[in-house]
Amino acid sequence: MARSRIDCHQANQEYHFKKRARQRFRLIVSEADYAEITLHIKEDKPGVIFLGYGYRHRTKWRVRWRKRYIVVVFDHHTDRIVTAMKYRRRRWP
Hints:
The protein has helices at residues 2-25, 31-43, and strands spanning 48-53, 58-65, 68-75, 80-86.
C-alpha cells in the first residue's frame, strides 16, 4: 500500500512539472527530457546552478535547457523535479 502511494506521488510530481513547463514556457517535455534534466541536477553538470534550499528537503536549481533558463525545484526524497518557474535575476543571484 505504501509503495503505491509513493509511486503515485512521484507520478504526480512528474506530471506537475510537465504541465508547468508547457504552461509557462510552451515546451513539451518527454520522458527522456525529464530524465536528462534530472541527471544534470544529480551530477551537477555544466549549465546547472544551485540557487538555494526550499521547503522540506527541496532545492532550487537554474537549468539551461533548450536555450532557455528554467528554475526547477528538485525533491530529494523522491528524486523528482517538482515544478518549473521562470528565472528572475532580481529574485535569485
